[in-house]
Amino acid sequence: MKDVFYEYMSKRLKEETFNPNRKTGPVITISRAAGCSVKNLSHLLLNQLNTKLGAQKWEVISKEILNESARHMNVDKETVQTVFDMKERSVLEDVVRAFVSRDYHLERKLLNTVVNVIYSFAVDGYKIIIGRGSNTICANIDHSLHIRIDAPVEWRVQAVMKEQDLSRESALSYINHSEANRRNFRRMIRGNVSQGDEFDLVISQNKFEDEEMAELIVNALKIKRIISDV
Questions:
Q1: DSSP string, 6-65
Q2: Is residue 225 a part of any domain in this protein?
Q3: What are 178's strand-pairing partners?
Q4: Distance (Å, whole) CA 36 – CA 21
Q5: Residue 22 burial (CB < 10 Å; 0-12/13-18/19+)?
């Protein structure tokens, strides 16, 4: 029953958001498992692509999603962030909220705005979009490459402990909470899509240095003929 509800809501959202005639790109989306870091990777990739192009054309898009969505909705960034922190609810809870809660309708408007903003960035082209469900939102763009950066749970726990100075228990709780929020956000966009079906390339961060991952991504772009091999 719950999957049917999510599929229905996702279909409505997709109908309201996506224009099938707008599929320009090119765009790279980089998703990461909680505890993995892609900040350095994204900027290494950016430099490689702009050097290859001979112009500062590619851009990294991350916080810009919150900023632009907040501007469109005339709200603060913290309000937009609540879309990405949505808790899992039952079908009954969602139906009740749809009829009686103002927050529900604001939530839908925020979600539509965020999806539109991400999709608009992607359509404009030459974007490296970090997270925010961008891989599912941009799935219908032909000139796109969808990357997943992953690592074993224990490796990610140790990374979070070091970066945020947390205990192992707190770090694991942070990872589980973050992943749950991301799953809920993805469901609201496209329903229960298998995670493995959403990515062109999955890279284990515990096995590669950032420079090596950037090189793998550039090679994948060449193989898919998103960029030339010259």
A1: HHHHHHHHHHHH--TT-----EEEEEE-TT---HHHHHHHHHHHHHHHTSS--EEESHHH
A2: no
A3: none
A4: 35
A5: middle
Question: Looking at this protein, which amino acid is placed at residue 105?
Answer: H
pLDDT score for 23: 60
Buried/exposed 162-194: b ≥16 CB within 10 Å, e otherwise: eeeeeeeeebbebbeebeebbebbbbbbbbeee
Q: List Cβ neighbours of 190 (8 Å cut-off, separation of 6 or more).
A: 10, 14, 136, 139
What CATH number is given to the structural domain containing 111? 3.40.50.300
How many structural domains does the chain have? Answer: 1
Which of 187, 181, 219 is CA-nearest to residue 203? 219
Distance separating alpha carbons of residues 25 and 13, to the nearest angstrom: 21
Q: Is residue 229 a part of any domain in this protein?
A: no
Neighbours of 225 (CB within 10 A): 10
Q: Report residue 26's pLDDT band, with 50, 70 and 90 as the boundaries.
A: very high
Element (H, E) at 149: strand 144-150
Domain that holds residue 141: 2-218
- Nearest-angstrom CA–CA distance, 5 and 137: 19
Rounded Cα distance between 171 and 164, Å, is 8
pTM, two decimals, is 0.77
Structure tokens at 13: 């959202």
| Antiparallel, parallel or unpaired: β 144-150 and 127-130 | unpaired
Out of 150-164, 174-188, 211-225, least confident range? 174-188
